[in-house]
Design goal:
Protein name: Phosphatidylserine synthase
Distance between the termini: 21 Å
EC number: 2.7.8.29
Membrane topology: Multi-pass membrane protein
GO molecular function: L-serine-phosphatidylethanolamine phosphatidyltransferase activity
Structural class: mainly alpha
Radius of gyration: 21 Å
Largest sheet: none
Number of strands: 0
Mean pLDDT: 80
Family: Belongs to the phosphatidyl serine synthase family.
Order of helices and strands: HHHHH
Strand content: under 5%
């Protein structure tokens, strides 16, 4: 939803941000963001409720069981539940989450301004390299 507000604020500078009000509000906010939030919450709920049984691969008799165990090798040993919107969170954590969101919004907006100011097409190699660089920089936080 913050990105939709960003698009509205900068549509006078970036022509590709101009959208119909119903496209921005109904489709982007309610349908796609709402559906994405709901699916994400269902996924998080399912991941917290899942039971993990850790055992040695030598104790598994079937080949399919060993293959499944090998794939599960790359999942974490324990799952930590996060309550991002818990009202008992400290102000410092709230500011840290807010800062993360703002930096990400500025980074995304920067992409559009660079393409607009330097008149680069979306398939320009520098645009692609910049996206890869942002992905590499943010990878440790995931």
């Amino acid at each position: 939803i913050a990105w939709e507000v960003t698009e509205i604020c900068f549509c006078h500078l970036l022509p590709n941000f101009i959208e119909c009000w119903w496209d921005s509000l109904i489709l982007d906010v309610f349908v796609f963001n709402g559906l994405g939030i709901w699916v994400g919450m269902q996924f998080c709920h399912a991941m917290e409720m899942r039971y993990y049984s850790w055992e040695s691969i030598k104790n598994i008799r079937s080949t399919s069981g060993k293959l499944k165990r090998a794939v599960m090798q790359f999942t974490p040993a324990s799952w930590t539940s996060m309550r991002w919107l818990d009202p008992t969170n400290t102000a410092m954590r709230t500011m840290a989450v807010w800062q993360l969101v703002m930096f990400w919004q500025i980074s995304e907006l920067n992409t559009f301004f660079l393409k607009h100011i330097f008149q680069m097409p979306p398939n320009h190699p520098l645009v692609f390299i910049r996206i890869l660089l942002l992905g590499a920089i943010s990878a440790p936080s995931i």
